[in-house]
Amino acid sequence: MSHSVELIDVEQAFGDVKAVHHFSAHIAGGEFFSILGPSGCGKTTLLRLIAGFTEPTKGRVRIGDKDMAGIPADRRPTAMIFQSLALFPLMPVWENIAFGLEARGVAKAQRRKRAEELLDLIALPGYGDRMVHELSGGQRQRVAIARALAVEPQVLLLDEPLSALDLKLRQHMRAELRALQKRTGVTFIYITHDQSEALAMSDRVAVMSAGILQQIATPQELYANPATPFTARFVGETNDLTGTLRGLEAGLATIATTAGRFTGRTGLGLEDGGRATIFIRPESMSLSRIEMPNSLSAKAVSLEYEGAVAILRAVSDHGQELLATIPNRNLADAPQPGEQIWLSFAPQEALVLADA
Amino acid sequence: MREMIRRFGPGLGGFFLALVALWIIGMVLAPNLMMLNFSLKPNLFPADIGGPKDVYTVSNYTALFGDSVHRSIFLKTVWGSALVMLATLAITYPLAFWMAKVASLRGARAMLTLLIIPFWINEVLRTLAWFIILSFNGPLNAFLLGLGLIDAPVRWQGDFGVLAGMVYAYILFMLFPIYNSISTLETAQLEAAKNLGASGLRIHWRIVIPHAKAGIATGCVFTFMLAAGSYVAPALLGSPGSRWFTEIIYNWFFEGGNWNRGAAYALILLVLCMAVVMVTLKLFRVNLADVAK
Amino acid sequence: MSKPRPVTPLDRLSRALPKLLFAAYLTLFLAYLFLPLVIMSAATFNTSKFPTVTPWLGTTLGWFQELWNDAAMWKALWLSLGIGLAVVAFALPVGTAAALFLTSLNARARGIFYAVMVSPLLTPGVAIGIATLILWRQAGIAGGTFLIVLAQATFITAYVMLMVVARLQRFDRTQEEAALGLGASKGLIFRRILLPFLKPALIAAGFIAFLQSFENYNTTLFVRGTDTPLTVYIATKVRTGLTPAVNALALILIALTLVTALVMELNRRRKEG
After folding, report:
1. Does the interface ipTM go beyond 0.85?
2. Is C38 a member of any domain?
3. Which residues of B fall within a CB distance of 8 Å from C234?
4. What domains can be seen in chain A, in order of their start residue?
């Protein structure tokens, strides 16, 4: 079993600017853990903290139950894959891969042998003597992974390593990374601003905004039960209506908005009479020609056909933009642009969260 | 400092810092400060050093302006160096422009390779070549006599010889920076200007020269400094009547035996060059980093 | 609208004139640059005791012989080569350290140190020589080879620093972090990552440094004591007994320069092609 990573109330400040506030998380050994957030949210800082390139201003980092304070990057059981990959352009592929072993004083013949094994693992056999600039983007990507794996790290830290690849390759590499993680059993901590990447690969995802941890949850949980308005808006598409909380009972909350009263499941931190927002996923919206409970009157604007589904864009009578997905089989019934419609949802499929 | 240790470790980082300190403190700052200190002391017998006569004085500096011969040599050096600077600028500008903007890439490159050759040949040898050409029975006089342009050999060595030798020796220090800076000018700008009906002269005055100012400033600073500090050309191509300021300094050290005064004169030369650097940079609104490329 | 004037021969001349003038200028420029070197080289083969090409008294290779037999020349040559190597050995590490130091500073401090470091390039060579001479006299060390090396290295280090700084600007620092993250020591990172990256700049800088040292006269003159490197030897010869043997030396140095320039040019073309 690979090492677990524990972050205890970690804080990182650069001068007056706090890049990370009170971040705590326990990442289990062998877990594929992602940190998701928009650029500048402090996720790279967090990764560099774990790698040991910087020391936290406050708090502790523990890897495999060992406190990492004062242990420099080259002594930690971690390996990092950089956004730019940072391959060594003046060394052939095999020396790149074996560099960590060279640093550990492994004899040359053995280094070469291990590099060849890793080249097999990343499906690039026979590429050892090529130079980095002769490889394609995806091949470089894999060499960077092999280089990090060569030192047999307990924890692999990945800083948006797929961001430079084109869409097709990115999707392919996702699957490959996931498979590699399962095969090696190494703890992966993966940083990305791309939610589909995080949701597709991870066991659990931490969502971060402006240096503050929003939520840690499995991808399904994150999508179904976001803990904060930020997470609800950042992960997946959503409709939101803001108003005042008017009644809480039996797990259901009702809010009064300018567009009417709506009921949804209760989320965290609700207080009767406080400001709150109800979130409804586009696929939870049902279309009808007559008024229903929990429904909004709106005018259809456009219909974007995406294959399996179509996205209906509409504007409520109060000027709010709304999204609804229409399954393929119901497409015949789709409204024409300009048509007046009702969009409704079941209370169980909507979530009410207190405004921050 | 801390960054160096952090990046290279205490051993290697400390070693690097020690090397930098050795250079900056031991070889750049300390010698100049010692020279300054030296120049502010009178020339004493060893026995008097530390005694009552060992006081600070500016007499070594005022001496230059009190001595009419030295003063005129100093002024001639300033004037002569400026002349060398202007002459090299006038001679090289058209070629620099041609290489950067008119010639084909191959042509410019061939020219560059050709020009590098004399650049690599040592200043003493370049001056020697002129020594031979200008000598009384040398090729220049023979050529001019043969053409019937002169009736008797001319004694070229002297002020003319010194300036000619310097222009020759430093011409490429002017050419290369100007060429480099003009090459970064977009050709489209020239075409646009021409298209708008600007004359050739106006294009140079309003577009090329403003763009190339850093290069021109660099060339001017270096040629002036090299000319003012030159010793070979005046020593080999000069005559007793054409002494250069560096020769006076040399004499204080190795013939006059007054190092203190020599140090003062050397500092005056140094300050002169620094002043020219500062003024030129200010005038052209160029910063130091653009010069030292 | 006026009708276009027919093109007269005068028009044609006035249109061609700038080109003609430029061609004349270029010819004169090249003649000015190379004729002195040609004359100096040619004088090597003239039997005339004073080096000249007018009058041509007879063709000889004897001056090479005389140069070959000139023990003082050999001594000066070896001294110059030794000084050049010593200067390179000093200036390369120090200039590299200075460049690394500069890049580790914040913008303000960098400006100050940069000015101090390039100041030797803007200082007249004689002043550098004199300052070095005066400082070391306090320590009881008189002019000689040691001071020649120190004084030359003072400004040659600045050249090395500038060349290394230029190369460092293109270095991707995450490579160092990547290596660190893989467990490499600081020393290994320097040796395996940074040094190989700097190698081309260091080779070029070493070459320039050697050339600068080999050619130097102004600074050397003041700190040489009684030692005589090649440039001083030549200058002394000119004043005390110039014979075409010195031209023979010049010719050989020019030939070496030509060969080096050609090799470098071919090398560059091969790299590009």
Report:
1. yes
2. no
3. 124-125, 128
4. 5-229 (3.40.50.300), 237-354 (2.40.50.140)
